[in-house]
Structures are given as structure tokens and as C-alpha cells.
Design a protein that fits this description.
34% strand; 7-stranded antiparallel beta sheet; 6-stranded antiparallel beta sheet; 15 strands
């Protein structure tokens, strides 16, 4: 994983997609060998700070592990390399939504803000699903400081490693029913999406819409995903 690969994406088009629908796909963000390497970390418990079995908490079925600091090199590169590409859009969204908070240019500066507020636990995570597993619609909010975008990269090939298990989003606009979206992903593709709220331009100006994300039921096989959340947890 290199910064050059991140820089190679058409970030103006990514911003347009995010403004239009709340999500955008980064095709081939990770190479197949990188996907396998990250997925293979799941059994190394020393790389993680905690293990969550979703059924115990009503989150769905399946499990995930939060990485501990220091993050694995590839996960760290993703977090620090993607952040400066997304921070300008995050600032533009906050301005359009009338929110005073602005985000610094580098991820290290943003983490200083999180840590000063007591949000010191790393949030990048590795998720594992088997047959019958799913992830309920949710938002990844871990404290006062929330970066409004996050990234999930699929590490397994659909229709080869697993069946089902689609990444899904719902968007709730005021006084309207929720709008669903199923995001098409292949192994190595990433989806950038809104964590909580995004601005939507209506006939009378911008207003906020709420998003939630999840994963539909895996019918067979095994599915791994690495999630990059830019704010740390309290």
C-alpha cells in the first residue's frame, strides 16, 4: 500500500459521489496480496486490543477485533494516507451543515485533539463473518470528536470466498422514508461513506441527512473487512 496509489484516485469524482449519495467506491485500493495479509492477522490476538462477538451485544452475528497501537504498517498507511484527502470534504460538509468544528490538515493533529479529550483507544478494526452472520445498521460514534467519513475495504472476493454479505447503507431524510443502497464491492475495493450526517442540497438550501451502515447476511463462506475510522474512542 503506497501513498502514490491513494493519490492516483480521482478525488474530485470521489467528492462528487459523496456529495450526491453519501458514499463512493475506491476500486482496487488494496492489492489481493495485501487483502490476504490483513485478513490473515485476525488469528494474531497480540495485534488487537479487544474482541467483540456481535450477538452478545445485539449488534448482529459475527465478530470483530479492534487493533491496538502501534497499528500494523498497512493499516497505519491507510489511516494517515486517506485522511488528508478526506479532510477538505469533511470541512466543507461541516460548513454546509452549520457546524463550527473544522479538521486539521494531518491525521496526527486530529489525533492530538481526540487524545486531549480522552479519546485514546484506536478504532481501526478487522471484521470476520461466516454463514448466517450479519451486521445490524449502526453508526461508529466513539466520543465527542467524530470525523464525518470512514472507509471499509473488502478483503474477500464475493462469489468465490463468500455469498451474500453485501455492504448496505440507509439514508434518512427529514419527513421521508429511509432510502437504502447496496454498495457493489470486489476484493480490494473500499467504500468511503458518511459516519453519521451529511449535507443534502434541497430547494431551500442544505439540510442534514442521517446515514447508517451494515452488512446483509452471509449465506456461505467467510468474509473479512478492514475498517478505517479516523477518530479514536473514549
Amino acid at each position: 500500500m503506497t501513498v502514490k496509489r491513494i493519490d492516483g484516485f480521482d478525488w474530485a469524482a470521489v467528492a462528487d459521489d459523496l456529495d450526491r449519495q453519501g458514499w463512493a467506491v475506491l476500486s482496487g485500493l488494496l492489492a489481493p496480496s495485501e487483502c490476504d495479509a490483513v485478513a490473515g492477522m485476525y488469528g494474531d490476538t497480540t495485534a488487537f486490543r479487544s474482541h467483540v462477538v456481535m450477538a452478545r451485544h445485539g449488534f448482529g452475528k459475527g465478530e470483530y477485533r479492534y487493533f491496538s497501537y502501534p497499528l500494523p504498517d498497512l493499516v497505519q498507511e491507510l489511516r494517515t494516507g486517506l485522511y488528508p484527502r478526506l479532510a477538505p470534504l469533511a470541512n466543507a460538509w461541516h460548513e454546509r451543515m452549520g457546524m463550527d468544528i473544522r479538521f486539521p490538515a494531518t491525521h496526527a493533529e486530529f489525533l492530538e485533539r481526540c487524545h486531549a479529550a480522552g479519546q485514546r483507544r484506536p478504532t481501526p478494526l478487522l471484521l470476520q463473518y461466516g454463514p448466517g452472520d450479519y451486521n445490524c445498521l449502526h453508526q461508529d460514534l466513539y466520543g465527542e470528536h467524530v470525523f464525518p467519513l470512514q472507509v471499509a475495504t473488502l478483503l474477500s472476493e464475493p462469489h468465490e470466498a463468500f455469498e451474500g454479505g453485501e455492504f448496505v447503507l440507509t439514508e434518512q431524510r427529514p419527513r421521508m422514508q429511509s432510502r437504502p443502497a447496496v454498495v457493489p464491492l470486489r476484493k480490494g475495493d473500499a467504500v468511503v461513506f458518511a459516519v453519521n450526517s451529511r449535507p443534502h442540497r434541497g430547494t431551500k438550501g442544505d439540510y442534514r441527512v442521517k446515514l447508517r451502515h451494515g452488512v446483509s447476511e452471509v449465506r456461505s463462506g467467510q468474509r473479512h473487512t478492514v475498517g478505517i475510522i479516523f477518530h479514536d474512542a473514549a
